[in-house]
Amino acid sequence: MENSSRVYLYDTTLRDGAQTQGVDFSAADKAKIARELDALGIDYIEGGWPGANPTDDTFFADPPKMTRSRLTAFGMTRRAGRSAANDPGLNALLAHPSLGAVTMVGKSWDFQVTVALGVELDENLRMIGESVAHLKPRVPEVMYDAEHFFDGYKRNPEYALKALRAAYDNGARWMVLCDTNGGSLPEDITRIVGEVVAAGIPGSHLGIHCHNDSENAVANSLAAVRAGVRQVQGTINGLGERCGNANLISIIPNLMLKMGFETNIAAADLKNLVRVSRALDEVLDRTPNRSQPYVGRSAFAHKGGLHVSAVAKDPSCYEHIDPALVGNARQIVVSDQAGRSNMVARMTDLGIEMEAVSRESLVRVVEQMQVSFDPREVTDLVDLVKRLEHEGYAYDTATASFELLVRRALGQVKRYFTLDRYRVIDERRRNAIGQWVTLSEATIKVEVGGSEYMEVGEGDGPVHAFDTALRKVLTGAYPQLAALELADYRVRIVESTAGTGARTRVTIESTDGKGNRWTTVGVHTNVLEASLEALQDSIAYMLYRFGEG
Q1: Which CATH number fits domain 417-477: 3.30.1330, 3.40.1800, 3.30.160, 3.30.390?
Q2: Averaged over 87-91, what is the pLDDT?
């Protein structure tokens, strides 16, 4: 007897997720992601559609070895007018012995059958049944994706059920109910799944596949499980065509931590959820969504002083789970909205007592910054942060710059290098074939370890040219800086009424290629000066936090 509390997880990131605009997986990308999903404990990993494109053919020709997951191929039922044995597309699903399952899509909405396919309704049912029967003895598991099932059921429930029955009666392990257009609401899902189960197709053989066009994909998937289905399909980070698919990163902890269901993912595996989410972003060269539930950097961030004070007493005051359960961490944000509680909590995270940072030490640090207020007016750290945020600094995101500010006040961060002067020249000219090109050249004078150096760097822009020149000098003294990468660069005007003389905030996100990411900020009326402040903080933070080598 099957465990009624066991839910099977089916990932379609590599196939349905690949339909996202701007996403183009290579075969190597697919293999890397598949290994991450296998290590996490996903039951089924849909690798793609054999025969559909060269990338999928390359992936299936040499797939990664699965240790916990079933590698699954996607295809479609036989075409009208062909036998299952003579359909090339259907039989392409049999060419890969490493497969643990095969999923076939077929129509379950009579409107789609007659309009999109242009075939008779009975012929469509034969296409489903004969395709399942043909594959059943030849592959470990056969699944039927009932495309447009919920839309079809709302208009012709009798025919939609016949489509499911054609697959079920011929031995399909799973019948997956698809909300293909993504327009259903949770109450629709609950009612229809209940009626399908009541009609004789058990929930232990039903799956759910939701799209997010009404922002209900996760809610609909959970509603389906509550109504009886025991397989959930989705993608990592909600990738997918149009508005995306159901986000497994949210579904998994909801199932396990909120609803009490069992999956193939153990508690120890669940702590890798953040890593898996960010691994996909790395492959896609995307900045992780800070606000993503469970795994985002802001998912357990606290900014308001009242909130922080309560969290210090008991985290459950403003946290629905312990962030460590999914591999995340609590973040106490410092900003102009922060009170003393925020500062105390953040300093505790840094291992520093508030009282250790004196007013005099803060004044010395601020005197080196170009600010409009008199540093001698600063009363304490809370007052300083609020004044700097008013200048345009944003320490709620630039946590590395905040840490450097405090540690410099304590004398814990040495001066790794000193920029004595620089000059940047931009040139626009025609190249050898007559095309206009713009180049930047930076000349810098830097003091490192008591010695002075001059260097020149070229780049696509002034910041790039400056970075190139600075790295030429610094990597000699600090070789590990060769691994430093600027993952994101953002510019924002913080005084829009001042026109071209407005103060500019530059935020830089950096990485060392080992999974460490940090954010720094610079503010100035000159965008290059703001950029250099943030860039120099980024370098100093890497050297301080991760060692000088």
Answers
A1: 3.30.160
A2: 92
